[in-house]
């Protein structure tokens, strides 16, 4: 186990996943680590993109590049947040509960409008798909809901 802050239950060493976190934060996606951070962002007025980040290959090759492409779109959500599966346990569990009835998956991408889930991309929609196709899916959701 690795120590990160006051918790000892992180699945991955923070120094290993730091570049994976930075991949999204460099395009304005805000890190969330607590239940309160996730709830306040999702329940806020407007639209919130939620990314459950992951160490898996489909996150690296497909999900994160798709988010980076979509973040350059002319229409964007009010805010974009992320939580890292395996490390940001409280934040991830809270986001996943708000994504019901969809089962937990990572990576995953969800769009909320005024606290309501309006668009969901599960791992099986990410795995094996080109980042460009996923980005197009996200941008279509931005056009419709943002």
Account of the protein in words:
- With 146 residues, the chain is an alpha/beta fold.
- β1 (2-4) and β2 (7-10) form a beta hairpin.
- Residues 1-8 have low confidence and may be disordered.
- 44% of the residues lie in helices and 23% in strands.
- It has 6 helices and 7 strands; from the N terminus they run ββαβαβαβαββαα.
- The longest helix has 15 residues, at 131-145.
- The protein is globular and about 40 Å long.
- The strands form 2 sheets. The chain has a 5-stranded mixed β-sheet with strand order 3-5-4-6-7, with helices on both faces. A two-stranded antiparallel sheet has the order 1-2.
- α2 (35-43) packs parallel to α4 (89-98).
Short description:
By secondary structure, the protein is an alpha/beta fold. It has helices at 14-25, 35-43, 57-70, 89-98, 123-126, 131-145, and strands at 2-4, 7-10, 30-31, 47-53, 79-84, 108-113, 116-121. 44% of the residues lie in helices and 23% in strands.
